Amino acid sequence: MRNGWIPGAFLGALLVPGAAFAQVVNPADAQRPTTPPDSAATAADTGKEPSDLERLRTWELPAVTVVGEPLPELREEERIGSYAQPRWTAARRFPGTRVYVIPEGKTEFEVWYRPTFNKDGTTDVRTLWELEFGLPYRFQLDLYFRTDQTGDESEWLIGQQVELRWALADWDVIWGNPTLYFEWVALEQRPDKIEPKLLFGGEIAPRWHWGSNLVAELELGGEREYEYQWTVGVSYSIIDYKLAAGIETILQFTDTEDDRGDMTESFLIGPSIQFKPSPPATLNVAPLVGIGGNSPDARIFVNFGWEI
User: Fold this and answer.
1) What is the per-residue pLDDT across 111-153, written as a single tens digit (0 to 9) for each?
2) According to the 3-state scheme, what is the secondary structure of 111-177?
3) Residue 24, domain extent
4) How far apart are CA 66 and CA 172, in angstroms?
5) Residue 244's domain is classified under what CATH number?
6) Count of domains for the chain
7) pTM to 2 decimals?
């Protein structure tokens, strides 16, 4: 396997995730009045001194009261952390659509399973093992270890991905909470890729949340295949901080160097479901169906995350 440095860093970060990514507190946040949620692990209800509370997980963070904003009806819509972002944004809401950044100090491990069922009867399978780190100044770093199988009989190929995000401002300062995203993908026996994105997301109304991404996935060698995507996700909270359901779509245009501008189109649409069986755990499932002759029959996203 080439470019083998990332798995070493990935495993090292997995073994000691908290050592290098402790939460950094914005001094301005100390001036904000807060209202602790029922399950917040504060010094008052744990009996610990503040110095003993090394790092609160996102479900333990006290809510931030934003001046001029009404108090939220749902716990998942409470504002938390240095960027005063809703609690629901601390976990991945849609498998195919990213929203904002996770709070600084957060570390999460995720596992992905993504089969694609092609019209010729074959199945392509991608798996991902991911570590997410919330960094100061509205940055987020993700490290991935990836495997791919194209068709039912081909060998498994290894890949590695590094992703960096930066949100342009604290939550709700700019409409749509725009966030810049850049990913580098190193793939065994295949050309490397880069993937810039522009992320948007927000709240439509109480219980209603949305996200949308503009994506370019650019192959750096071989046929120099370029993919352009527009993804959209809308979700409704059925049970506060426990169960949400909605819809997700992916519209994709693809061309190669020899036929630049001669686009092949595909479209996927289907339900998107999130279930949180416990505060640190998040399960997302999105079975999308292909529409049109160039689309696959179906693509299923299954994602499980655990906050460390």
Assistant:
1) 999 999 999 999 999 999 999 999 999 999 999 999 999 887 7
2) EEEEEEECCCCCEEEEEEEEEEEEECCCEEEEEEEEEEECCCCCCCEEEEEEEEEEECCCCCCCCCC
3) 5-307
4) 11
5) 2.40.160.40
6) 1
7) 0.82
